[in-house]
Every structure is written in structure tokens, then in C-alpha cells.
Design goal:
By secondary structure, the chain is α+β, with helices and mostly antiparallel strands. It is built from 14 helices and 19 strands. The structure holds flavin-adenine dinucleotide (FAD). The site of flavin-adenine dinucleotide has 34 residues, from strand 3, helix 5 and strand 10.
Length: about 450
Amino acid sequence: MRGEKLPIAQLRAAVKGPVHAPGDPGYDDVRTVFYGGIDRRPSLIAQVADAADVAQVIRLAREGGLELAVRSGGHSNAGHSTTEGGLVLDLRNMKGLEIDAAGRRAWAETGLTAGEFTTAAGAHGLATGFGDTGSVGIGGLTLGGGVGYLVRKHGLTIDSLLAADLVTAEGEVLRVDAESHPDLFWAIRGGGGNFGVATRFQFRLAEVDAIVGGLLILPATPHVIASFIAEAEAAPEELSTIANVMPAPPMPFVPPEHHGRLIIMAILAHVGGGESGERAVAPFRALAAPIADMVRPMRYPEIYTPDDPAYHPKAVARTLFSDGIGAGEAETIIDYLHHSDASLRVAQLRVLGGAMARVPAEATAFAHRSRRIMVNVAAFYDGAEERARRETWVADFAAALGGSRAGAYVNFLGDEGPARVREAYPGSTWDRLAAVKARYDPTNLFRLNQNVPPARRA
Ligand SMILES: Cc1cc2nc3c(=O)[nH]c(=O)nc-3n(C[C@H](O)[C@H](O)[C@H](O)COP(=O)(O)OP(=O)(O)OC[C@H]3O[C@@H](n4cnc5c(N)ncnc54)[C@H](O)[C@@H]3O)c2cc1C
């Protein structure tokens, strides 16, 4: 439904926040999402102010038959937070945050980014774990699971989620927690945006203040990669690591003779400063002479380096889980990275385990609890003509590493089709999600996402 049939006037009258349409000043800024190469022109973008606004936007989308995109931080790799010709429900202006420091809890509106939440909670020496990048929205990140610097010590982001306020496809505002709508509470912890629009999350806060963390760059040989993974698995749970195996970018802290050579650009984060932190990172420093070592005592929020709002990379990626990166897998990684000429290409390795793995698989819709390593392979592309070649490379690379047990992390999925969405939800998870979907969104209004179509259980 387009042109004169669009409910622009009704929408403007119905919501408190601004509504943007093509031709309005600032429309191009507002429609821009994180990833370059996603250049859609929504007919309307409603920047909602509260749950009542959200309900109105949902109602108008439903009644008008408009494709509805839901946007928090706008980082969807699949481009799900925008639409060609449809309606965007944009939560970015909803940044309310109530921190109960004594009670170790916070209510956070879903327009906040991980960095904004972390800075505010950090002022109290407290944190909830999000991902590796400050500009990512807590909306999408939390609903898909949330894997970051605290994953081994405090679990996934959803493991700190105590409750949510959710507006359903019918426009009802529900408090969702372990007692109230427990089926929905299970589903939104990993099931993504399938079940409604989350306007607020209540998180548990942990004491996380002094850490030892930062960037450690090592030469990437099969031996160093495999040893890095072995050390990360053997490390105390206080330490979480993200190892990016990639050609060294020409950054000021990388000596010029290493530019273009394969490195491990690792980010380490040890909860707790002092002796214990230094002890935990020492084995990584000893793997090879570091090319750069910026690991230091810091306060937790400093782990998020400032983001450049003008940065809009064009990238394709594949997500998978691995049950071991030994010398053979490390050689495969080196081999693939050598045989690509993409301007940036990377295998990102995150050792899991710890608190995340102690949550039973059936407790949340994120069910890959026993997988040892999360892998994401990615390549940048320039023109559209380059994209297909990069797609083939990431798909082949992922197949070489993952095989038939690859699985998928929903938040790292691109637009890869229904079979891949199913891989994010192993065992009985898929059927359970489809049944919850049938109950709360039987017409699949929320379908611009990693979609779980509604299905009643047999
Ligand atoms: C640079 C970068 C780094 C990343 N690092 C990590 C990481 O370290 N760990 C990790 O776990 N993930 C990471 N991700 C993946 C990230 O978690 C997902 O892309 C996530 O969906 C982004 O959330 P968002 O709110 O920014 O995105 P959006 O594009 O706004 O939302 C994505 C989708 O989530 C749903 N959604 C979002 N908000 C709501 C809401 N309030 N209610 C209902 N549905 C909603 C919608 O379906 C929407 O289409 C990263 C992504 C990028 C681009």
C-alpha cells in the first residue's frame, strides 16, 4: 500500500513522536541503518516516544496492511530494521534508564545502545553484559541472546534479563517475566523480534568495575591460533576473549611491516583488576611476541571504544558454532584468509562456556548452550558486483569450518533463508517458538526478522 493511501495524517495525529516521510528534511539521515549496501526507502518512519505510541504504530500497520520493520539500534545484518515502502517503528528516541544500584537492577528502554547503558551503569561500578560494540542497540541484541565480554562470567545478555514490557500484535502491553506470560518470557530470550515490540527490559546488574582488558595483537600462525583457543578455554571464567584472525589493517598501533599480514587481533576482558587479571592474560602474551599489547587495567566501560557514526561498512558474513579449533581448523582459517582479496576479511572466534553453558538448553530460546566456540566469518565488499563473490567465499569458508553441525547464532544471521533460521533453533526449540508465535502473533505481523512462522503444535 503506497502513495495517497498511506496513513500519514492518522499516524502523525496518533503518536507523540515525530513521523518522517520521503521528502521531509532529515529523512535520509533517519532511514540510514548501520550497514552500507542496505538502502531502502520506507514510506513512513515513526519515532515512537512510549509504549502507547508503539501500540498505535502497530495498529496502523496492521489495519493498513503495511510491511512493518522494527528498529532499535539499526545493526541488523539482514537489513530487517528497514523496509522498501513500508513502515518503520523506530525506538531510538526511547532512552529512559532507571538504575536501582542497591537492588542491582535496571529498567532500560530499548532505544538505548549497549554503550549508553554500559556507561550509565558503570558510574555505579555495575554492568550487564552486551556485545563487543557500543553502538549496537540493546533491543535486537538482547532478543537474540547477546554474547560479549562478560559471557563466561555472567552468561548471555538474556541470562541477566529479569522482565520485559512488550507490545503485542494486538497492541496489548504485557509485562513479561518468569511468572507473567512465562511462554513469552522463554521465547523472547533468543527468539528475536517475532513476538512483539519490546519497549523496556529489566536487567540484573553485576558488580563489574575494575577489569584487565584491551587489544592484544599476535601473529597468526596455525599454532598460535590453536594455542590461543586452548588458553581461552582453560582460562578462568572471569576472562572472555574475542579473537579476530585477519590481515593486519594499517592502523597507527600496527608497525608498518605487519600491514597486510595475518594477525590475531584479540580483545581480552578479565573481570577483576590487579594480580588475578594480570595472571589470566599472561598466557596469551606468552604465545608469541605481541605485535601490539594494549591490555591494561581499566574500568569496564572503557572496553567500548568510541564508534564513528559515519562508518557504514558493506559486509557479508556467516555464523556457525565449532566444537574445537585445533591446528587443522587453524590451517583452514589461514588458508581461506590467504585466498581472498577482500579489503577486509576475518574469522572471529569467541570461546564460550562458563556461566553461559550452565543454563539448561531448554531454559531459553537460545539453545546452543553446550557449543564451545562461536565463529563468524565475514568479508567486506565494495560494489554490488563484488558481493556475490564475497558471499561464495564466506559460505565456503563457513562450510569448511562448520560442517553439518554448524548451527547459527540468530543475531549474526544475514538474509539466508528459512533453513538457516531453523539452524538457530535446535531440537524442540523451533516447534516451541512456532507455537508461542501462533499464540501471540497468529497473522505473522512481525515477519521482517529471522522469521519463525506461526504453527500450532500437533
Ligand atoms: C558491528 C556489530 C557488532 C556486533 N557485535 C555483536 C556482539 O558482540 N554480540 C552479539 O550478540 N551480537 C553482536 N552483533 C549482532 C547484533 O546483536 C544484532 O545485529 C542485533 O540484531 C542488533 O540489534 P539492534 O537493535 O542494533 O538492531 P536493529 O537492526 O534495530 O534490530 C534488529 C532486529 O531485531 C528486532 N528488534 C530490535 N529491537 C526490537 C524491539 N525493541 N522489539 C522487538 N524487536 C526488536 C527486529 O526484528 C529488528 O529487525 C553485532 C552487530 C554489529 C553490526
